[in-house]
Amino acid sequence: MRVFSASSRDFSATAVMKTDSLRPSFRTPVTTRARGFASAAQRLMSRALPGQCALCGNLSQDVLCAGCDAQYWNEPRLRCATCALPLAASVMRREREDIRVHCAACLDAPPAFNDTLALADYRAPLDTLVVELKFRARLAAGEAFARQLHAVFEDSNLPAPDVIVPMPLSRMRLVARGYNQAWSIARPLARMMRVRGDASMVTRVRHTSAQSRLDQETRRRNVASAFAVSGDVRGKHVGVVDDVMTSGATLDALARTLKLSGARRVSNFVALRTPKD
């Protein structure tokens, strides 16, 4: 009687093949169906057992209750068509043959991006929704932002982008957080707009300090050469999605990289915009 071990040279290839054929497949139809049932059950449970509204705390099957959803979106503020900065009527300026309003800064020193759509100012109570999405993994908030951004886009005269990309995170930050909050907005927005969404077309090749802690000039230097484009954007209109726009330095750096790679136009879709007032 011969005894075989894992290191035995007499352990024939035929025997190995027979042993491998007895191993269960982890991609069986039964397993796939079970996962499908579990996913469906989870969706049903989320509907049957409502959670809390992210803003007021009342019971709600959606991330916002009906009252908060009707009250806080699309505040009536005039915004610069280029950077979405809130404007007072006294400082509005228009380009020739352009009915849209622009801030003086964008006319005097235009950024690399062409347009920005924003839902509201980054202030209470909607800033809570960004915190829920960004730091507490409440990904349903991304769907809520996408729905409202799509409505704003539908009311605008902007052309649809050819592709939508999220503001990328560095590998270090992505590993630490586990997800990209901008992609949680960009993916459903691309689906609603019926355009292609691509999470890998642009990458952040250099880890940078948190922009919120820096002054405007330092922010520009901080994100210079931070991005790379791996897809073909030549002649394309690229939509860039982010959760918050503060100074616009990061979006400007990404738009500059896209333009240098051949992009024809870059439009920003941001959930909230930090005001100067």
From TrEMBL:
Ranges where the Phosphoribosyltransferase domain occurs: 186-271
InterPro entries: ComF/GntX_DNA_util-trans (IPR051910), PRTase-like (IPR029057), PRTase_dom (IPR000836)
Family indicated by similarity: Belongs to the ComF/GntX family.
Protein name: ComF family protein
